[in-house]
Amino acid sequence: MYIDVHAHMTDKAFSETDRVMSAIKAAGVGMVVCSGYDLETSFASRDFAEKYDFVYFSAGFQPQELAKYRAGDLERLRPLLRHEKCLAVGEIGLDYHYPDNPVRELQKEVFAAQLRLADEEGLPVVIHSRDCAADTLELLRENRKHLGHGGVLHCYSYAADMVKDFEDLGLYFSFGGTSTYEGAKKVQRSAARVSAGRILTETDSPYLTPVPRRGQFPNTPANIPYIAGRLAELRGEEEGDFVRRVEENARRLFLKWQA
After folding, report:
1. Buried b vs exposed e over 196-222: b needs ≥16 C-beta within 10 Å?
2. Which pLDDT tens digit goes with each residue over 95-105?
3. What is d(CA 96, CA 102) in angstroms, rounded to the nearest whole number?
4. How many domains in the chain?
5. Rg (CA), the chain
6. What CA–CA distance (Å, rounded) separates 58 from 15?
7. What is the pTM of this model?
């Protein structure tokens, strides 16, 4: 069973979703987590998960979307977190990539608040972190007491020598299409370094289409086999063994997944 722990299936890039979802299932993908990134997409992800038996969802405020954030929004998320198919709080985190992103102090404040919310609701977190490795690590260390239910660094792109720092916090790592790109040596070294019990697969659909379909849009979870195959190769593992281990890891992290 292939696993996609992070996809945006409610994106407007997708049409004829029944056909798309049938192709995903035919590719051997047994579980997809549809990720919310603000209030609207979190509720939409819930609705999408209710429509397809092998789809679950996460709910949260991603740092690039905080211009929409208003006082009380996290409490509006709370009922979603108690839904039987909500596996995590996310995606949440920090993003310093664009100069017009919301101010860093607000990002940190909302990130920390959502870590506390996840702890209160007994859920793991899905972490988005771009161009801010040191600040992400520092904030997570400061809030370590709220990471008791685990979490995953989605689309991990930092150096291999930071893997142990994040593993020491009990975190998992998911890798997507970038791990198949010829020039993504840092990502590939990190994917090879992650402990066997901490690695997961994702697509970040509709983005980051993997080789050999790079350049095609939208990316879908049906492309997970290409990602899993490349990750297994980078790690010197048999693909079947790797895929089984990813499923085991996903079940260990996402305790509400009952499939």
Report:
1. eebbbbbbbbbbbbbeeebeeebbbbb
2. 999 988 889 99
3. 9
4. 1
5. 17
6. 21
7. 0.97
